[in-house]
Amino acid sequence: MGVNIKELENTARNCRKNIVQMIHKAGAGHPGGSLSAIDLIVGLYGTDFRFDVNNPNWSDRDRFIMSKGHASPAVYSMLFELGLLDQNDIDTFRQLGSTCQGHVDMKWTDGVDFSAGSLGMGLSFGIGCALAARMDQSQRKIWVMIGDGETQEGQIWEAAMAADHHKIGNLNIIVDRNRIQNDDFMDVQMEIGNIGNKFSSFGWAVKEINGHDMHEVVSAINWASDNNTEPCAIIAHTVKGKGVSFMENNPSFHGKAPDDNELAIAMEELS
Q: pLDDT by residue (tens digit) across 141-169?
């Protein structure tokens, strides 16, 4: 399909505004990792991702598993752009009974394929989805997004080993490599080293990109979509808090809402 890069960039900008606004309104949430991931999510949905907005539970759809589920505002902002969520949904983010829970939850939100909580589980879940697709003789592909801090979880590498063992060619992972986790920079907490080399050593095909260059994002997603013989890993080098100057590369905005003054600054910058 033809891809309009400028249109995708505009969608990502709108998503960034909604991310910051919903977290401000809730007074809580995770802006940094949502802003680093949103270009990748918009790029995924804007390419050949098989999804029907009129039938979000279509059994043969591709699956998107947001393993770093605390970055839920990124997912909700995309679903809002697609028309699966309305203004009231995102305005009630993190409220009791809201469609938009603090972590993505497939029981609450149409368009969410994985209920997240503890980190490290999404890739294993994705393997199960991919093997089920193989058993169903379905062409659906499975996409998993993880954070780079999440790669400190041992379960990620058990799953990576299993994916290669089973030669799961319909499984793709996107690593949001923003180099910051909950408490500090990764090289302070526990540096993971060259993530691409690690996935390659586990038998995965690997491509490293600038996760904020929509041309590179789309190209990498198409590359992974066309590879049906082995699992693929896209290592996307990103900036935590991308698009909002005072949030960029700032560990304190991993899980902090902007105040009124910060919201005004962010909205001006994102305009």
A: 999 999 999 999 999 999 999 999 999 99
CA distances from 261 to 39, 86, 253, 265, 270 (A): 25, 26, 15, 6, 14
CATH class of segment(s) 5-270: alpha beta
Q: What is the largest CA-CA distance in the chain?
A: 53
| Tens-digit pLDDT profile for residues 249-269 | 999 999 999 999 999 999 999
Cα separation values, 194 from 36, 78, 207, 219, Å: 19, 30, 12, 22
Please report, to the nearest 10 degrees, the dihedral formed by the alpha carbons of residues 200, 158, 36, 241 taken in order.
Answer: -120
Question: What residues does each domain of the chain span?
Answer: 5-270
Starting at the edge strand found earlier in the chain, the sheet holding 205-210 runs 63-66, 142-147, 171-177, 232-237, 205-210
Gap between the Cα atoms of 31 and 136, Å rounded: 38
pLDDT digits (tens, 9 = 90+) for 76-116: 999 999 999 999 999 999 999 999 999 999 999 999 999 99
Summary mean pLDDT of the chain: 97
Residue carrying structure tokens 């808090």: 241
Question: What are the helix (H) ranges across the chain?
Answer: 5-26, 31-45, 72-82, 87-91, 122-135, 154-165, 186-189, 195-201, 214-226, 260-270
8-state DSSP, 92? T
- The pLDDT assigned to 50 comes to 95
Supply the pLDDT for residue 34: 98
Q: CA 212 from chain center: how many Å?
A: 13
